[in-house]
Design brief:
two-stranded antiparallel ribbon; mainly alpha
Length: about 350
């Protein structure tokens, strides 16, 4: 528990730091622009687009739940759609409080209501996150190539500070991803070794046997992707998930007069690069709005206006998770606890 508290403090501190970075050099005129931009969405049309942003997020999370069902199915367990969706929303809700706590609660949720062993479902959650990371890396590279001319000549001047971004620097960042790729490969190699290793000792201690069983169940969850019964459906759910993430970002753009005419590419860049904000700070606090503002500056949007758009977009996502997450906790209490194992494992 102490470790979780330390993680929370670190991520919150990062969030507060990014908030400070984003506002420390703002002039009174900038603050006025932020206020005007925020007040500017208080009309039926803009609020409707913000509502669509939140709905798109809910639909995206629902497709994630459906994809998770397909991952668990090869393990011999049937998860209800309601249980899967509630577990995903509780995961995101918990992660707002303590980093990575949601993944644990998501598996505990499935174990409680549909009797899916924790270790096995945790393996599928790891697969889910690895897939997201791979797709993010692909989209990130795609974004760079689609905007290479813009990025190669980028020089932002703000209050005497010059920030130069060159393609060489970006390729250095991409090169550093090699360690992540090697780490993933290493995990799979170790997993294969553990799976194939036979029991040679007949008188193993109960603790050793239990640990091996936990590792084996976790590995079964990790490799469940190769036994998916409906691979094409899995691909469709994955594409739909990211499409609705993108639509949510695009709907948020349409809520602002100064973003409506930018076109689809800036929204795509915000979707991909903005995800980094959620990786480095608690719930994206401070980091996401700052990244959004920086991206929009590339397309000629005033920094203060971009910051306002970033904060409103972040608020819409966070409010959606709070509302649907707490609703999921309440609705889950009405679920009947079932043992939905297909076979006796």
């Amino acid at each position: 528990m102490k470790k979780k508290i330390i993680q929370l403090l670190i991520f919150l501190s990062l969030g507060i730091f990014f908030v400070w970075i984003s506002v420390k050099n703002l002039s009174p005129e900038d603050m006025e622009k932020i206020k005007e931009s925020a007040v500017g969405i208080l009309n039926p049309k803009s609020l409707f687009y913000i509502f669509l942003t939140m709905i798109s997020g809910v639909i995206a999370h629902y497709f994630r739940a459906l994809r998770n069902i397909l991952l668990i199915d090869p393990l011999g367990y049937r998860v209800r759609k309601a249980t899967a969706f509630y577990s995903v929303m509780v995961c995101y809700l918990s992660n707002l409080a303590i980093p990575r706590l949601g993944e644990v609660l998501r598996c505990s949720f499935l174990q409680r209501y549909d009797k899916v062993p924790f270790q096995k479902s945790f393996g599928t959650v790891v697969v889910d996150r690895v897939l997201d990371l791979i797709i993010f890396a692909v989209l990130f590279v795609l974004i760079i190539f689609l905007n290479k001319e813009l990025l190669s000549e980028l020089v932002i001047n703000k209050e005497g500070v010059t920030l130069g971004v060159r393609m060489g620097e970006i390729w250095i960042i991409l090169w550093k991803l090699k360690y992540l790729i090697l780490g993933i490969i290493a995990c799979f190699v170790i997993g294969i070794f553990i799976r194939k290793k036979k029991k040679t000792a007949k008188n193993e201690s109960k603790i050793t046997t239990k640990i091996k069983n936990i590792i084996f169940d976790l590995w079964k969850g990790l490799i469940s992707i190769k036994d998916i019964k409906h691979p094409y459906l899995f691909v469709i759910y994955t594409i739909a998930l990211w499409v609705f993430y993108y639509l949510g970002t695009l709907m948020c753009f349409l809520a602002f007069d100064f973003l409506q005419d930018l076109g689809p590419m800036p929204a795509f860049m915000v979707l991909v690069v903005g995800a980094i904000g959620f990786m480095v700070a608690q719930g994206g606090l401070g980091a996401y709005p700052l990244i959004v503002a920086g991206i929009l500056v590339l397309y000629g949007v005033d920094f203060a206006q971009g910051l306002a758009a970033g904060w409103i977009g972040w608020s819409a996502q966070t409010i959606m998770i709070l509302i649907v997450g707490f609703a999921s906790l309440i609705l889950a209490s009405f679920l009947k606890i079932e043992n939905r194992a297909v076979n006796n494992e």
